[in-house]
Amino acid sequence: MDFHSIDNNSARRIAALKQRLDSLKDNDYYFYNQAVQEMLPESKVRVNGRVMGMYASYSYLGLIGHPRINEAAKRAVDKYGTGTHGVRTLAGTLDLHNELEETIANFKHAESAVTYTSGYVTNLTTISTLMGRGDYVFSDKINHASIVDGCLMSGAEFRRFRHNDMEHLEGLLKNAPSEVSKLIIADSVFSMDGDIIDLPRIAELAQKYNAWLMIDEAHSLGVLGEKGTGIEEYFNLYDAIDIKMGTLSKTIPSVGGYVAGKKELIDFLRHGSRAYIFSAALPPAQAAAANEAFKIILDEPERLERLNANTRLFIDGLKGMGFDTLLTETAIVPVLCGTDEKAFELTKRCQEQDVFVLPVVSPAVQEGMSRLRATVTAAHNPADIEYAMDVIYQAGKAMGMVK
Q: Which of 7, 222, 289, 339 could be joined to 228 by an S-S link, Cβ 3.0–4.6 Å?
């Protein structure tokens, strides 16, 4: 099909995106989909033949390549092969899957857990299975796209409250019919800003207005709490969250997503969510890798200590240089640039000095809020973090962003 010969909205959208990509590439501003050729120690990677410090990684505890995890994955391949016999409900369930779900349930202080093949799918299917027409869903304004898509797919009345604004949320809850099913959903740590949801207050509102509370822990698992078990430990509120969602592809160096909660809830999802019933099971190696990673988080608490120290070094250093890092308290550190062009230019200058950062621009964030979305991990050497900060500072200074 020749899209150039078709005059409709789809063709115009394709043409507009092509024009934008061509413009970025012409100006040497296209930084996406770069292939990592090799993983190296101390959060370094080889990209385009150059060794670079990785400051765009979700591997917050530096577990990618951990020998125990690698060995668990290899043993699983030797025992089960590289795939399963189908979907979980039929011939696809391995004892590995059951063991992983039991590990997750224990880790999250829940009665039961269910796993899916991606974090995106987990949100999509959980929300759309639990909620339907006539129900009400309340979502933080800057929740992840998978949450938004799940809310839209559910067909429920979709209400978005201002970011972390509990007064606005309560106003929306007051205006909803009292007799309908209600779900409040938010990220625990927001993926673009790095700040933390006000769990005590949002849990209080959920209880007051008889709403389910679902929290997405994609960026808090292994990051928050003294032991790294997440936002419940961080706030010491273990019974506040009804639907405990998380991913297996960030701190946990595998792939997939999970929901933990009451046994009745998990049984309902296991027999009612289309993504569980109609998607192939997690491959054996990935299930084994995830299972071992949860154990390592508890066995090696020094990783979380290093992450916290590196996080403070990075945030305090960049703020001290004059950069706006918004309200981040975690390893996700936005470096606000303003315009898309400034974010692209700052990225280019940093990558030229072997600091692998990436820009986040509109429409992923609102216009005027484009940024570097930099991250640190437990694997970073503090001296390398100091170097990265100096590179960002020198580039920002040359561009007139800081003094």
A: 222
